[in-house]
Amino acid sequence: MREIVSGELKRASPSQLKDICGEIREEILSAVSVCGGHLSSNLGAVELTVALHRVFDFPRDKIVFDVGHQCYAHKLLSGRVGAFRTLRQEGGLSGFPKRGESEYDCYGTGHAGTAISAALGFAKARDLKGEDHAVIALVGDGSFNNGLIYEALNSLKILKTNVLIVLNDNGMSISETVGSMAAVLKEMRSAGEGCGGEELRGSCCELSGRADAIPAEDVRLFEHFGLRYMGVVNGHDMGELLASLEQAKAALKEGSVLLHVHTRKGFGHAFCENAPTETHGVGSGGGTEYSAALGEELARLAEKDKRVIAVTAAMTDSLGLRGFFEKFPGRAFDVGICEEHASILCASLAAAGMRPYYAIYSTFLQRAYDEIIHDVCAQALPVVFCIDRAGITGRDGETHQGVFDLSYLSLIPNLTIAIPKDIAEFRAMLRMSIHMDGPLAIRYPRESTEGAEQPESSLEMGKFEVLHSTMSDIVLLAAGERCLHIARRVLWRARREGLDATLINARFLKPLDEGLLSAIGAHTVITLEDNVLIGGLGDAVSRFYRSSGKKIFSFGYPDAFIPHGAVGDLMREYGLDEDAVLACIREHYARR
Among 64, 100, 261, 431, which lies 20 to 30 A Cα-Cα from 45? Predict the structure, then answer.
């Protein structure tokens, strides 16, 4: 794709703008087919992004993307065409807005619900500095489930500043948007579409005419927050978009505006339009996933135990729970992008005698930290956190790496933390969890191997598993499937050189297997974890042995935010290096 400069965009005729949208859409399709990434969400926002760049003057004007799943067209219109095929590759463009990447990215995002708060901050700073530019928050309807949005709206009148909130409403987050606000927006879309119809292929209604058709109580909902409501706008009709954005820009001089734009996720590509959930995120690899095992095993548990409940925060399909939701609709709850609320819901369900299983990505569980501590663990309630995408996740970068959970969970009293070595052990842990009296966190990466079938009786709470025993003076303690794979490779290479080590599956970080650790006579202990070193397995083992005279060598990640790239490459670069572990063993033998 050629580079499109701002002047060309502002001079372009309607037909030329349509051609530009086509160029952008083809470039996104082509790049994502190679690099992976968020496809359908970006395709649906092309016309809206082009119109925003036409009407406003970026980077002088500021735009904050909520989550950032729809920022690819923005990158292509801001001088990054030449680098676009490096999207989500190590050293290349981020899949999300990133301040260090371009002056057009004024604020880094990656989690939902933050854009309006950030926009208010930029707007207030503008006012205090006596500057004069527009501040825009581009927010998807899925984010309107998140409580942060309403905390920000609640302070809009207090801060006495003006922002434009563009609501990109396609009825979807990853899956279909759920909840009461989703119903309100759907009602507004339906009333405001008038002549445009569900297909969004054209429009013949004026903006004001559409607004008049929307139920007054729905408009007042936004007016109570201090917003002038404008909409519903056809997000794929360039003429209508440009007219409504110009009108909103002028209205910003008087106060804050919410412009309600209706788009179709995956627009312009028939397959994506018909499968918006499946094409939300397109990967560049495959393989067996823990999520499939979670859905299967929870369904088996639910058949035997009517207390079993599955809870997720807008991630039903990604976490393997679609089958459970279809089979047990009365015991399956998708609460939308509301991670804190989901945690308290699980806590109260458990307090009432149910057995809730809360499936969530590691990076999103961070958002519910206060509720994990005070609502679940302080009350010692039997909630099971099924933590997917733990460890380095790769292409989505800093905002999505799941490398902190062992650390932020390990300091919480009453919480058991389990790290399965494969899917079979994961299934056994799930079966074991039904009998537990307190909270349990099971953390695992995306991909896996099945492993040998493992009876529940083979697991004992807080007990490690010795996989290879030797008289060597070296012990390898590996937590989780990835680390055990590295440790096995290291051990295989070491034994070819006449060296050896005991290998232990450190499958519980908490409680730590102090009995086995006390029985270890080896002088050198090496730990491996797919987590930052501060507060993780290495820290726990070092504390246990602090006065023993043993030498502890810990392999994990440094005190840093890990950027995007291939999982294996990042693991090696940031600390989980097979060669480095083997060198540690060689050095030990050389000192003997």
Answer: 100
Annotated active-site residue 367? The verdict is yes
Q: How far apart are CA 490 and CA 470, in angstroms?
A: 15
Residue recorded with tokens 């297909």: 199
Assigned token pair, 170:
């396609």
Q: CA separation (Å) from 125 to 108, 121, 362, 577?
A: 17, 6, 33, 45
CA 375 to each of CA 277, 307, 350, 383, 445: distance values in angstroms, whole numbers, following the listed order: 32, 19, 11, 10, 26
Marked catalytic residue, from 189, 210, 264, 265: 265
Dihedral sign for Cα 405, 409, 415, 421, please: positive
Q: Does this model's pTM top 0.85?
A: yes
- Is residue 339 part of the annotated active site? The answer reads yes
The CA-CA-CA angle for residues 294, 295, 297, to 5°, reads 65
Instruction: Give me the residue label for tokens 């119903």.
Output: 183
Residue-range domains of the chain with CATH = 6-282 (3.40.50.970), 290-458 (3.40.50.970), 465-591 (3.40.50.920)
SS3 of residue 258 by DSSP: strand
Output phi, psi for 434, to 5 deg.
-65, -20
Catalytic residue among 339, 340, 371, 425: 339
| Tens digit of pLDDT at every position of the chain (592 positions) | 888 877 889 999 988 999 999 999 999 998 898 888 888 888 999 999 999 999 999 999 999 999 888 999 999 999 999 998 999 998 999 889 999 999 999 999 989 999 999 999 999 999 999 999 999 999 988 888 899 999 999 999 999 999 999 999 988 766 678 888 888 888 888 886 643 333 333 333 334 445 567 788 888 889 999 999 998 999 999 999 999 999 999 999 999 999 999 999 888 777 776 766 666 666 544 557 999 999 999 999 999 999 999 999 999 999 999 999 999 999 999 999 999 999 999 999 999 999 999 999 999 999 999 999 999 999 999 999 999 999 999 888 899 999 999 999 999 999 999 999 999 999 999 999 999 999 999 999 998 888 778 777 778 999 999 999 998 999 999 999 999 999 999 999 999 999 999 999 999 999 999 999 999 999 999 999 999 999 999 999 999 999 999 999 999 999 999 999 999 999 999 999 999 999 999 998 887 6
Among the listed residues 62, 88, 367, 507, the single catalytic one is: 367
Amino acid identity at 372: I
Is residue 309 helix, strand or coil?
strand
